[in-house]
From TrEMBL:
This is ADP-ribosylarginine hydrolase Tri1. Mg(2+) binds at D87, D89, T90. The lineage of its organism: Bacteria, Pseudomonadati, Pseudomonadota, Alphaproteobacteria, Hyphomicrobiales. GO terms for molecular function: hydrolase activity; metal ion binding. Belongs to the ADP-ribosylglycohydrolase family. The keyword Hydrolase applies.
Length: 137
């Protein structure tokens, strides 16, 4: 697993365990300079025009963290992410994972959930995955 993915997994794990936005706090990290910068939270001081929406893993992770940190809700984070333009689907997908973990599943707008095919099955599988990843949950 590459270093950026490890940062991503650490953030998801902490957020799912209840840390909320505290999971986005800067942490020391080994590895390439850009990954260290993201883990250290250098994206926090950036303005929207400085956030890149590309398919490059570092840009995507930075954009997703920035969008989630700038938002007060899951919906706000996702709308901000996809409106960065560029690689909107990739940044939106990663932001959705982080924002979902930070704000919790109940924060996902019902009007987004209702039209999902196999919604019940997806919710069951998601709950099973969380339990498998951390039996204490």
């Amino acid at each position: 697993m590459n270093r950026a993915a490890r940062v991503f997994v650490r953030i998801l794990r902490e957020a799912i365990r209840g840390a909320g936005k505290d999971a986005l706090q800067p942490r020391p990290w080994d590895g390439a300079a850009r990954v260290r910068d993201i883990a250290a939270g250098t994206w926090r001081g950036k303005a929207r025009p400085q956030i890149k929406s590309s398919g490059y893993v570092i840009d995507t992770l930075e954009a997703a963290l920035w969008c989630t940190s700038q938002s007060a809700s899951f919906e706000e984070a996702l709308v901000l992410a996809v409106n960065l333009a560029g690689d909107a689907d990739t940044v939106g997908a990663v932001t959705g994972q982080i924002a979902g973990a930070v704000f919790g599943a109940p924060s996902i707008p019902l009007h987004w959930l209702e039209p999902l095919a196999w919604r019940g099955r997806l919710e069951t599988l998601a709950a099973q995955l969380v339990r498998l990843s951390d039996p204490s949950m």
